[in-house]
Specification:
427 residues, mainly alpha, single chain, 63% helix
């Protein structure tokens, strides 16, 4: 139950609710005030006498009526700035208490339905890392209720916050944090929420490699195999996957399914005709087309397979240009540049100006920004050569090489940029 709602109820009730008999009296008072009955055990859970569960909307509405609000939404809409300020002070007070007195991190459940919940989670993680309090950090990730009952967007924001807490950690601290990889909640946030190519040769790649000893499910194992194979490809390193021996997960996530088929397409060139057929058949069955093609389209750009790219866009243009979730901007960026490259291949460069604007190069996106911009530079370089527009090839080349150096992938050398369309028939 919302901590503020609980306090407001106690104010209305006239005294703190500290005993079971207070619950009985509150139950009667709520009925007198609202003509609605709330179960005795429901109130006991709400005030900590029984293990907490999420209150139903009906219960929250009745309790909000009791303290003078039309509904729970009306209650939540009151002075948000003051609530944030008060909750922030409460958070600092809780973190300053000894662990035993605080009772772990269950107090954070009070903020689960707040917009600023991911910010609070990020602050707790950063505080514990700064304090080198690895034991408490481990206990924090064991609080399943903080990680299992959230909307997808909230989890994505939590993962992004964790990313920024880990990105610049020195090796000795990252090694300590890596111990948390035995915890599924940590692995889900730190690794599986989204794939990081910008830091594949840095912290993210090390986390994936360190996680292998802890993996249990088929989905986790497949994720790690495919990611490390892709990184080896970009590092021009030897790496093989025994695709026949892969344990394919049931109800595979569309992103992971697409990644599997993309690597199969890469590694078994003699079977590409059959793999392509499987890709298109599988795409027709997945609702989230943009997620399914998230890894396939960048792979096809790396392979310069324009005929396949065109076929995909002819089938699913509306689903691939545009997004529903805020973090899907990352997917749309790949798709925009793929369209630009197809246009250059077909001699239709006049269509590219608006696509470049949609890409928004000057914006820094939190996930794979450098990897996006590597492809952007390839597209911009050859668009300039074909259109004669006022863009400096030298400047584009320098940006490209800067991103390539920062990511550390030898695949992206100057020859890849300069000769991207060499040997291909252009319109």
């Amino acid at each position: 139950m919302d901590n503020y709602l609980r306090k407001a109820i106690e104010v209305k009730f006239g005294k703190p609710i500290t005993q079971q008999r207070d619950i009985n009296e509150l139950k009667e008072d709520v009925f007198i005030e609202t003509s609605n009955d709330i179960g005795f055990n429901t109130l006991r859970r709400g005030f900590g006498f029984l293990p907490s569960v999420k209150c139903s909307r009906k219960t929250l509405n009745i309790l909000s009526n009791y303290i003078g609000f039309r509904s729970y939404n009306h209650f939540l809409s009151r002075d948000t700035e003051n609530r944030l300020s008060d909750d922030w002070i409460e958070l600092q007070m809780q973190l300053s208490l000894p662990q035993k007195k605080r009772g772990g991190f269950r107090f954070l459940e009070n903020y689960l339905d707040k917009d600023y919940f991911p910010i609070f989670i990020s602050h707790v993680i950063k505080s514990l890392i700064d304090q080198k309090n690895w034991k408490q950090l481990s206990l924090f990730f064991e609080e399943n209720s903080l990680f299992t009952h959230n909307h997808r967007t909230v989890v994505a924001r939590m993962a992004t916050s964790l990313h920024f807490n880990l990105i610049n950690l020195p090796k000795e601290k990252l090694d300590k944090v890596s111990v948390l990889l035995e915890n599924k909640n940590f692995r889900n946030l730190a690794i599986y929420m989204w794939v990081d190519y910008d830091h594949a040769n840095g912290y993210f790649g090390r986390l994936v490699e360190s996680s292998i000893q802890h993996l249990v499910g088929a989905e986790e194992k497949l994720f790690s195999q495919l990611y490390l194979r892709k990184i080896a490809f970009l590092n021009l390193a030897e790496s093989n996957i025994a695709y026949k021996n892969i344990e394919f997960p049931e109800n595979c996530h569309p992103v992971l399914h697409g990644r599997y088929l993309s690597m199969l397409y890469l590694d078994e060139p003699k079977k590409r005709k059959a793999t392509k057929k499987e890709i298109l058949l599988t795409a027709s069955r997945h609702k989230a087309k943009n997620e399914f093609f998230q890894e396939l389209i960048p792979l096809l750009m790396l392979l310069k397979d324009f005929s396949f790219l065109e076929e995909i866009f002819n089938l699913y243009y509306d689903e691939l240009i545009g997004y529903v979730h805020w973090d899907h901007v990352s997917i749309e960026r790949y798709n925009i540049i793929a369209l630009v490259l197809v246009n250059i291949k077909n001699g239709q460069v006049k269509n590219n100006k608006l696509l470049f604007e949609f890409f928004a190069k000057d914006q820094v996106f939190h996930n794979n920004d450098r990897y996006h911009k590597i492809f952007y530079c390839v597209a911009a370089y050859h668009h300039k050569k074909h259109s004669g527009e006022d863009m400096s090839l030298a400047k584009i080349k320098n940006e490209y090489l800067k991103h390539a150096q920062e990511m550390g992938f030898p695949f992206f050398d100057f020859a890849f940029l300069k000769n991207y369309f060499n040997g291909l028939e252009e319109a």
